[in-house]
Write a structure and sequence with these properties.
The protein is of the alpha/beta class. The protein is built from 15 helices and twelve strands. It folds into three domains: 104 residues, NadA-like (Rossmann fold, 3-Layer(aba) Sandwich); 83 residues, NadA-like (Rossmann fold, 3-Layer(aba) Sandwich); 80 residues, 3-Layer(aba) Sandwich (Rossmann fold), CATH 3.40.50. Helices cover 41% and strands 15% of the residues. Strands 2-1-3-4 form a four-stranded parallel beta sheet, with helices on both faces. The structure holds iron/sulfur cluster. The site of iron/sulfur cluster has 13 residues, from helix 9.
Length: 318
């Protein structure tokens, strides 16, 4: 009997589809995807995908971003329930009120947000370019950063800017407590601590290096150190281990799991390609504003995409 991966690949080709997966998805999903990356890399891949169908294995805002950047493709999610609690911490009404309370602020919006919130913002950012985006805002203009207080605070520190932050956060990264990191350091002396900027300030203070998932991958690949304690969603460790077989990677906490990122499975990808359910769209009154905020980000900080492990960057459907 044909394996599920073979069935997915056959259907993928018949549908002229490309499968994009975030670094936090299940191992089985990462292993069958055409491209695995962070949210900026996925946005860029979606924009240039020459495919009729994009199967987005991640969470809802990523599928919205893919649709905004490639409106001609059908963007499908294998499980539409995969949302982002951080994105849900800020509604468009909340943002309008915050803008009224801080007139004149440049609104920098983390891509982990709804399309409607992006449309109310001046420019988007991801965790890999947040500092560069903030550095590009005129020094005289105050900055309102939404929705992640941890990323906004960190990016402000990096560039020496005072940044007002919305009080949102990623529950998965907030559960990486300093005491867990300390325990990991005691268990693995000599290992470097690498931390995602969605972690809290006390955890970032324990880091040897703070970076986005793509930055963590790059740091661990090029470092002469052979052991790392990793403070971000545990899905990234699959890729770190696959790309660095001679190095060791340890979880900084036993609670580094985003349940939404784990909703996508190989079976759901197969069903998605069989019946084409789960299409994601963006309302016409929101799309132009959201696209403008994303395009401004891409103009300031274009991504550097790497090749997917074991395959070319793009799936070219036959
Ligand atoms: S890891 Fe955090 S920010 Fe990323 S999708 Fe999950 S809840 Fe949202």
């Amino acid at each position: 009997m044909e394996s599920i991966v073979d069935r997915i690949r056959k259907l993928r080709d018949r549908r002229r589809a490309v499968i994009l997966a975030h670094n936090y998805t299940l191992h089985e999903v990462q292993d069958l995807a055409d491209f695995v990356g962070d949210s900026l890399e996925l946005a860029f891949r979606a924009a240039e995908a020459r495919a009729d169908v994009i199967v987005l294995c991640g969470v809802y805002f990523m599928a919205e971003t893919a649709k905004l950047l490639n409106p001609g493709a059908s963007v499908l999610m294998p499980d539409l329930r995969a949302g982002c609690p951080m994105a849900d911490m800020l509604t468009v009404e909340d943002l309008r009120q915050a803008k009224a309370a801080h007139p004149g602020c440049a609104v920098v919006c983390y891509v982990n947000s709804s399309a409607a919130v992006k449309a109310e913002s001046d420019i988007c950012c991801t965790s890999s370019n947040a500092a560069a985006i903030i550095a590009g805002i005129p020094a005289t203009q105050p900055i309102l950063f939404v929705p992640d207080r941890n990323l906004g605070e960190w990016a402000g520190e990096v560039v020496g800017r005072d940044v007002k932050c919305w009080d949102g956060y990623c529950p998965t990264h907030e559960r990486i407590l300093p005491q867990y990191v300390q325990q990991a350091r005691e268990q693995h002396p000599g290992a470097l601590v690498v931390v995602h900027p969605e972690c809290t300030s006390p955890v970032r203070a324990m880091a040897n290096h703070v970076a986005s998932t793509s930055g963590i991958l790059s740091f661990c690949r090029t470092s002469s150190c052979s052991a790392f304690i990793v403070a971000t969603e545990r899905g990234l460790l699959h890729r770190l281990r696959a790309e660095n077989p001679t190095k060791e990677f340890f979880e900084a906490s036993p609670h580094m799991i985003c349940p939404n990122m784990k909703l996508t499975t190989a079976e759901k990808i197969l069903w998605c390609l069989e019946d084409l359910p789960g299409e994601v769209t963006v309302a016409d009154d929101v799309a132009p504003g959201a696209r403008r905020a994303i395009d401004r980000m891409l103009a300031v900080a274009p991504p550097r995409c790497r090749k997917a492990r074991g395959r070319g960057v793009d799936h070219e459907p036959h």
